[in-house]
Amino acid sequence: MVSTGTSRVRFELRTRNALDGTVTKRGLALVVSIFLVTTVFVAPPAPATAPTVGQTLQTLVVAPAMTLGFTFKSFGAPRPKATDARGCGERQRVLIASATQAPRVGAGCRLLGGIWVVNGKSVGSAARIEATPLVSEKGAWAQGAFGWSQATQRSFVRWYQEGPRECAITSAPATRGCGYTMQLKGTFQKTASITDLMLQTQSRLTCPQSAGILGILSSWGLALDPGVRARVEAADCLTTAVKVVAKNRINPVNAKTVGNDYLSAGALGQAYTPTSVLSAPAGPVITSDQFGLHIPDVNGPIPTLPFAWLRLWDAKTGWEPLEQSRGTYYWQWIDDSVSFAEARGLKIAYVFGDTPAWAGPSSAFPPTQLSEFQRYVNAVVSRYGNRIHSYEVWNEPNLNSPMSKEVANLVDMTLALGSAVDRWAPASLVLTPSTTMRTDATVYPFYTDYLLPLAARGWPVDGFNVHTYPRAAEGPLVRAAQVSQFKQMLALAKAPALPVWDTEVNYGLAGLQEPKRAIEPPFSSGYLSQTFLDSVRLGITQTDWYLWFPRDYALLGIQTTPFTTETNAAWTWTYNQLVGSRLRACYDSTEAVACGFERNGENFVIAWSPAGAQVRIEVPAGLNRQCGISGACSGITGGAVTVGIEPIKLS
Question: Which CATH code of 3.30.540.10, 3.20.20.80, 1.20.1070.10, 2.40.50.140 fits the domain covering 12-33+293-351+370-401+414-567?
Fold first, then answer.
């Protein structure tokens, strides 16, 4: 629900030191326009010997898929070459080109006779075979084409449907440059989320299929998802030849993206193994600042959970409760929250939002007039100053995308807040509006519309703000992907390396045409623990759990109340493991995660299964004891342990 425009420049940018919390000022250089440029490349002469799967793996940037914001219209509609002169569509053309014994082409491109080899077996009926793209438009988008111009996106479709690629890979070596594979009907069901073999995460890849996928990604300069990499490695065909036709080497995914072990220096094209997670240098000390919480009623039961940040939202601290009639302020609810936090040594994050009826079209939208927002901001910041440690521009504006043009501009609002903080709270932080990742297609366009004009204003913020609420049926695996996708959006906009905060997260939420999914132990405790562990390994500066309540909160799938003893114990266990330790490195696959840590000279590993399957992993040498969230411990025998939904500590 954001409209964009221009506003005056703020010439100083405040940044927060991630280790000591200090705030410094730095001058800004001139900001250059950040349009993505598509460069036409001339294909180099083909090498004497085609590269292998193993060699190609070393050249590809490994980055999580970016599925948000995809639309087929980006790649051109209608699709080029929908049918040829014979009336043959994409599927029929692929089958004709791939037959070992050519079929007769009847009226309406009915394929008569013919023989095909599918999964090593001869099939004599075209009706039984489906032609599946190796890398579809959506697959290309997910691995970097989201950063292409529309002209390049359409070029991909046209190139993909050229004659040499309208065939199916059937055998190794995969040097023909085919763009499809053949499967028996019913084996692969195309859906809105699965449109090609690469995105079909449960499908085992053959060597020819692996080589074909890598050939397309490499030809177009696209990235490789860690899960796809694992499937390619499982195919055990590192010496299989790969056909590369250099077309586009523009990849918007930065190989040095902060917080992603796959993209860090020295790890390009290399996934960690479970037993090597203690070999990397230890990072900075993890502090209690990682743990934040929402408390709607600070006069209710006091949380028994250890945490460092209190985020003021859904706690009667917004604009409407504060100023129900213009010019008349009721400060008690904010005062109570600030006093509660100060008495316990907590830091406070204030969120601007909840527009009164007299100031705008609805509580979720920004006010109609920027001047009203400025008055609201000045009232709050001048009263509390540095007693509030961070100020957030607005809460989840993209939920109502597209934004009405009759409300205040978010970039102008950001500048207004920065001006007030500079005047009355110079040690406090300014955070961007929180972008919720639940809205799928609205996230990427919305955030781009906000980020690009923000860049033109000199990035007048101290941190970027995201809300990672997966859909009701999804869990931490999707939440981790959302974090990575959010960071990719920042990289695409050439955003500076500022802290990223996840200021609302929970699971199983009702909404988006889905009922609530109640999540009970051990999944509730496992999900909660994984959330903070993922935040640390993915470079999230601070995470605010939503929420602590005296009783069950109807909207949420995971409850944290005085009575949720197992979930509360998982929180405390995770806090105790992380705070004071230093992260070394993580092994990450679609089945298991293992992260190495160091504390006061002691090395240990925390391991878990994101989806909850029982997975057997190897244990680094020297570790012989495993302990769970409940406190139960046992010895390690045979050099391996079984991990599940609840993380375990290996020491």
Answer: 3.20.20.80
